[in-house]
Amino acid sequence: MATYETLATSSLFFGLERPQLEQIVAISSVEKHAPGASIFTQGSLVPNLFVVQEGTIKLSTDVHLWPKETLLRTAVTNIGAGSAFGWSAVMDPPRATLSAWTIPNTTLIAVDGTGLKQLMDADCTIGYYVMKRLLYLVTSRLMATRDAVTMEQSAEMSRQALLSR
Predict the structure, then answer these.
(1) CATH code where residue 33 lies
(2) I need a labelling partner for 68 at 20 to 30 A (CA). Which of 5, 96, 111, 114 fits?
(3) What is the pLDDT of residues 71-110, one digit of tens each?
(4) Are 145 and 98 in contact (CB under 8 A)?
(5) Residue 73 pairs with which residues in a beta bridge?
(6) Residues 31, 33, 39, CA angle at the centre, nearest 5°?
(7) Domain range for residue 119?
(8) How many domains does the chain have?
(9) Does the predicted model carry a pTM greater than 0.85?
(10) Contact at 8 Å (CB) between 106 and 32?
(11) Strands, DSSP E only, in the chain?
(12) Contact call for residues 124 and 21 (beta carbons, < 8 A)
């Protein structure tokens, strides 16, 4: 599937007019990754927003369940074709709030974050539309992160209770 079709059917850009999508395609590139590849890690600078063309991405967060304990990587969600991630690329500063890893061989459309910000500033229709979709994306990831951390903390508390018996 070509870059245009991937972006046109993605959760983030679906519904934009062809000329607007073509501007986004112009600042995009295709990346292919092997299983287990790190796309970015929590806290790192994220220059690109990504749309999954093919494959699956695992999003995870690193948390401390107890003060002064080692970091625990907690899976937040898996996303597939048509889903966007790396929304931090259009924020200032563009720091990742989660880590992203490939599961199988994965093909991604990488949209240049700086270029997308410029398009959003220059065309208020693109800006409003993309920010509205990004707000939904951020909200859903926040809820998934909260749920994953709560489940992990509950499981850890149960393990600790069993060990203290």
Answers:
(1) 2.60.120.10
(2) 96
(3) 677 778 888 999 999 999 999 999 998 999 999 999 999 9
(4) yes
(5) 62
(6) 85
(7) 3-163
(8) 1
(9) no
(10) yes
(11) 28-33, 38-40, 48-54, 57-63, 72-79, 84-85, 99-102, 106-112
(12) no
